[in-house]
C-alpha cells in the first residue's frame, strides 16, 4: 500500500484536492448539477441529444444508435433494456465519455461536454461519473477497503477521510466483516458489492451500470441489486442501469429500451 500511496502522492499534485463528501467545483464546469435553469425546472444530471454511432464490421455498416435522445434527473434510477446487440453498452460508454458518438451531444448538468478535449473529458468522467460493470475488475493484490480507498487518494483525498468513506460505503453494502479480504477471498456477490462501493468512492453524480448483477445467480443478484438501489437512494445520485432482468428493471423508477437505435419508454415498445 505504501508504494502505491507514494505513486498516488505524485499524482495528487496535478489533481484538484477534494473535501470529504463535498465536491469541489470543476473550473471546466462552472455551475453545479443542482443548479436550476428556470424556477422549478431542474437541469437534468445527464442528457443525450441525437446520439448516433455506426460500427464497421468488415464492409458492413452497423448503425447501432440512430439519433438517440435521453435525459435523467437528479435522484432518478432508470433501467436500460433491450435485446443483446441493441447497443446498451455502446450507449453507456458514450454517456460515460469513454467513447465518442459519430454525432450528437452529451450534456452533464446542463453543460455540453461533447466537444471538450480528451483530458477535460477524462477529468469530468472521474469527478462526476461512477461505473459498475458485469465483472468487478478489483485490484487483486489489495483488500476490499484499499480498493475503495485508492480511487479517492488518486483524486487527492486525504487518507483518513478516504478510509472513513470507504468503510462507510462498504458497511452500507453489508461488507463490514469483509473489508480486509482480498478479491480472491470474496464471493462473486461480495466482489460486486465492493465494485459498487468503489464506483461511489468519489461522490459521483451519476452512476452508469452495465448489467451489474449479470454474472450472479438469481438470488444473489436480487440481494446485490437491492443493496445497489439502497445505496443509490442514500447517496441521492442518479443511475442508468442496463439489465436483461425484468424483475430488477421493475424495481427502478423508470424503464427505457433501445429500439431501432433510439431510446423509447418501455411501455411504448409494445
Ligand atoms: N468496436 C466495435 N466494432 C464493431 N462492432 C461493435 C463494436 N462494439 C460494439 N459493436 C457491435 O454493436 C452492437 C451493439 O453492441 P453492444 O455491446 O452495445 O450491445 P448490448 O446491447 O450491450 O448487448 P448485450 O446485451 O449482449 O451486452 C453489437 O452488434 C456489437 O457487435
Ligand atoms: Mg452490453
Q: What would your notes on this structure say?
A:
This protein has a single domain (2-269), classed as P-loop containing nucleotide triphosphate hydrolases (Rossmann fold), CATH 3.40.50. The chain has eight helices and twelve strands. It has helices spanning 2-12, 88-95, 118-128, 144-154, 159-172, 188-199, 218-235, 246-250; strands spanning 36-38, 41-42, 46-57, 60-72, 77-81, 103-108, 111-112, 129-132, 206-210, 238-242, 254-259, 262-265. The strands form three sheets. The chain has a six-stranded mixed β-sheet. Helix 4 (144-154) runs parallel beside helix 6 and helix 6 packs parallel to helix 7. The chain is globular, with a radius of gyration of 19 Å.
Task: Give short descriptive properties of this protein.
270 residues; alpha/beta; Rossmann fold; six-stranded mixed β-sheet; four-stranded antiparallel β-sheet; 8 helices; 12 strands; 33% helix; 25% strand; disordered N terminus; binds adenosine-5'-triphosphate; binds magnesium ion
